[in-house]
Specification:
The structure is a single chain. The chain is mainly alpha-helical and about 230 residues long. It has three domains: about 5-80, no CATH class; about 95-130, no CATH class; about 155-220, no CATH class. The protein is built from seven helices and two strands; from the N terminus they run H-H-H-H-H-H-H-E-E. It has helices spanning about 5-15, 20-35, 45-50, 55-70, 110-115, 120-130, 145-155, and strands spanning about 180-185, 215-220. Helix 2 packs antiparallel against helix 3. The protein is elongated. It comes from Eleusine coracana subsp. coracana. GO terms for molecular function: nucleic acid binding. Pfam families: DUF7769. This is DUF7769 domain-containing protein. InterPro entries: DUF7769 (IPR056671), RNaseH_sf (IPR036397).
């Protein structure tokens, strides 16, 4: 025949083990009302745990801690003491020195970590908080003043001269054809494949690794004609 205390322990472990301070206060008041000169019966703790849906160990800790605080002449302490609330607090760091570091020396987190003397894991946490961000910068074509004037002149020439000054429109471009070319390498300098055990290794050759034959594709684009 199983021990009744063992069955209560199983029931307590299957229930949630955390509770708010208000619930813990009600648990203590219930235990205090059912106690006899500061002593509880054998089944009282298990019954109270089942009543509030708490673990048996949680109820025992509430009762033990409350009795200890009352013995010292203070108010019963029933507040939760979670592990996450203890321990050394994270020391905040200042990211202002990052302004004085050149951009070419902070292209990776490793470089930023080394220059700021801060761990990489802490920088990742700052990125999740939004205090540090990653920026991708693509190279843009450099335009001289002559290039800008040429582009502006081409755009002005695309305005339809027959349109009114109040409602200017661009040309229909039915007499324009745009041509573009694209080069494709016939093979790659390095290739990786996934083969079965009974397949032979691939073998491709080229006269030079730096000058691989290419194929040009010429494309012509124009507005649809109806």
């Amino acid at each position: 025949m199983p021990c009744p205390h063992f069955s209560f322990k199983l029931l307590g472990d299957s229930r949630r083990k955390d509770a708010t301070d208000e619930v813990r206060q009600l648990v203590f008041q219930t235990l205090l009302a059912r106690s006899n000169n500061g002593r509880l019966g054998k089944k009282v703790r298990g019954e109270v745990a089942a009543q509030f849906g708490l673990g048996l160990q949680t109820v025992q800790k509430i009762w033990k801690r409350s009795k200890a605080s009352l013995a010292q002449g203070t108010v019963a302490d029933v507040k939760s003491r979670k592990r996450g609330c203890s321990g050394q607090k994270e020391t905040p760091i200042g990211l202002e020195p990052l302004h004085n570091i050149p951009l070419n020396e902070r292209m990776t987190l490793d470089e930023v970590s080394r220059r700021l003397h801060v761990g990489k894991a802490k920088l990742i946490r700052y990125m999740r908080k939004g205090q540090l961000r990653r920026h991708s910068n693509n190279i843009k074509p450099y335009l001289t003043e002559a290039n800008k004037k040429t582009r502006l002149k081409w755009c002005v020439n695309m305005i339809d001269q027959e349109s009114t000054s109040n409602d200017q429109m661009f040309k229909a471009l039915f007499d324009h054809v745009f041509i573009d070319e694209k080069w494709f390498f016939l093979t790659q300098n390095f290739a990786k494949y996934y083969l079965l055990p009974d397949e032979d290794d691939t073998h491709h050759t080229s006269k030079s690794n730096n000058y691989i034959p290419r194929l040009m594709l010429l494309c012509v684009t124009a507005r649809p004609r109806f």
